[in-house]
Amino acid sequence: MTTNLVEMVDIDKSFPGVRALAKAHFELKPGEVHALMGENGAGKSTLMKILSGVYARDAGDIRLDGQNVEIASPRQAQDLGIGIIHQELALMRDLTVAQNIFIGREPRRFGILDEGQLNRDAAAIFASMNLALEPTVRVETLTIAKQQMVEIAKALSYRSRVLIMDEPTAALNDAEIAELFAIINRLKAEGVGVVYISHKMDEIKRISDRVTIMRDGEYVGTVPAADTPIETIISMMVGRTLSGDTLVVPDTSAAPIALEVRNLNRGREIRDVSFAVRKGEILGFAGLMGAGRTEVARAVFGADRRDGGEILVHGQPIAITSPKDAVDAGIGYLSEDRKHFGLATGLDVRNNIALASLDRFTGLGGILDEAGMEQKAVGYIRQLAIKTPSDVQEARLLSGGNQQKVVIAKWLLRDCDILIFDEPTRGIDVGAKSEIYKLLNALAGQGKAIIVISSELPEVLRLSHRIAVMCEGRLTGFLPGGASQQDIMRLATLRPSAVAEQSIERRST
Amino acid sequence: MTDTAAPAQNTGPRISGAFHRLLAFSGLIALVVVFSLASPNFMQTQNVLAILQATSVNGVLAIAATLVIITGGIDLSVGTLMTFCAVIAGVLLTYLGLPLPVGVVGAILAGVCCGLVSGVVVAKLKVPPFIATLGMMLILKGLSLVISSTKPIYFNDTPGFTQISSGSIVGSIFPALPIPNGVLILFGVALLAAFVLTKTALGRYTFALGSNEEAVRLSGVNVDRWKIAVYAAAGGICGVAGLLIASRLNSAQPALGQGYELDAIAAVVIGGTSLAGGRGTILGTLIGALIISVLANGLRILSVPQEWQTVVTGAIIILAVYADILRRRSL
């Protein structure tokens, strides 16, 4: 048996309010492709960021070739031969391929950059990868797949023996995936160890030798990829039992339909999505990262344009071309990224609550009725139990859960009766989560139609009266409330056939 | 972040925000004290009034710039827009011989219209504010020269015109206190702008846009309309500045204007308004404008050459922003 290239033992890591890793394990052999799987938030990326020097671990050991090592910075990881290719590519679009690969280490002659040498060095790496790529083209002009190759080349230029790939195929089509896999196989033959983080079951089966499964920041187990049934891997991923309240699904079949979406389309991201949600119903949207759930929500809300599709509110077709149209129709959207899209963080709680309804508090000459705003804000602070010293506290100083409540209050004040919650509990403490859940249930009880998008399966299962599952822009099926996690995972990994995939136009070059 | 952690940080930034204004204010006081000690002439009523009078044009322009900067934008056209409005007043009053009120309203309306155009270019055409107003700056500079045939337009036929800036309503009532009207107008514009910023929906959206434009858009607010309104309001205020400067010079000088926008932005920045948007006060801007003119006046009294005044002003700008960075870091 060969010695392990990498061993990570009993790794702990906490972020404020969250325990990201607890006694996590991982090992990697030379010439192995080792898949790392788990639900969103299981700790895969955190573990790999520790290995690549982005985060510092709280406890545990990291061994390279059996020797204990400290990896304090990405630079140090590179020097140790550990390269990582992040989910979001980190390339400088306006520079050439070669300039990107050797950024910060450009060959010089007499103190002047030696562009010729730079391009020759890059060409040599491409040759070793058996990759046809011109070193002098600008990165901007490359497809996502080719950009990924540039990242790999960059990692190899550090003589990496360990290559970490975080969701490398998220933006690739089948042909491009095949290209990537060919490169991975060549690297493997040269003894490079590859860590492959992915959600896609079929890819894991195709490319990896072993699979390590993580859940809630803990190590669950390691199994051989080839002869472990997908069902087993899925059950290892979701294996926890649901805690807390049991779901009560009210009978909303007689309730009128509040929002109906027909044949929503946009490029590759949203493909022919149709659904309806009734008054008093909570419709959950499940799916893996990049399945297109947020895209659907933003398209319905008018935040992004759409290529086609009809939106009906209370049975009436509504032309929604901007968020204003959606809000006027009574639709509120709570973004997954509160800091960027939900809160005006510099404003206080009162003004954030009033932000969508400011015209209602505007009197003669545009003067604001601060007393009226205060009264409403204080009312919602009490009703939703928002923890804030006062209604004039700046919103950015509240905790995540309370910020979320402020955004909820904003839409309640605006009399929205269709509420779309995108990752309502992301970045929120466990304690505050159940409070948000209760609030959503209460809102549904009042007859609001609610859509919940969540990447956390237990959350979807705990809240949803009905579950819509998406995969790669398509709605792959509806499940009744209380469906099993396995059912959801099966629909969420249901990739369309290769035939359908090839009919989609390739990304422009 | 935990729920319990939040209240602990409660009053921190408020104090710091006030601290910055305090810093600018104490800077102003310190300058006044130093110059008074250095020269007995400095604190003479005559000189104080001269300082205030000299602040009026830059102060009004800085207020216009403050509005736009709080939205997260920038307005480089305030200087040449001021000149353009002065030229329009000259056309209306001297070329066309219309009555004084028409000239006043016309100049301000011209400012509003130009601001409207900048606003539309920024909000609808999505041209970055820097570029849009840079273009506007040159367009207006050129138009001013074209309309006036590059010659100053004098207001000799409109006797009341110089009174706008240099007359003193206060002085006619309290002869001991001949505060020029220009100063009153500066404070009037400042009060109005402060009122709009803190008490009206327009003001609230101004801060909200600079704080997080996308969040405002996703709240269903017609972001474009409000943004255009802010640029238009700033344009109108530039119109007032145009009247002030034309009145003081008793002429519209078409070649003037470029460079004023930088003094205005300097005043805004010294006053603690963030160029990133979302934060700022009119009071701070006023203090910033006063610091610049006190500095210029005091250094002149001390016979420091003009060139060195410019050097000192530049250093003060950098210091003021560095103080702001220190404040942010301590949050």
UniProtKB/TrEMBL annotation, chain B:
It comes from the Bacteria. GO terms for cellular component: plasma membrane. This is Ribose ABC transporter permease. The chain crosses the membrane at residues 22-42, 48-69, 76-98, 104-123, 130-148, 184-208, 228-246, 282-302, 308-326. InterPro entries: ABC_transp_permease. It is a multi-pass membrane protein. Keywords: Cell membrane, Membrane, Transmembrane, Transmembrane helix. It comes from Devosia epidermidihirudinis.
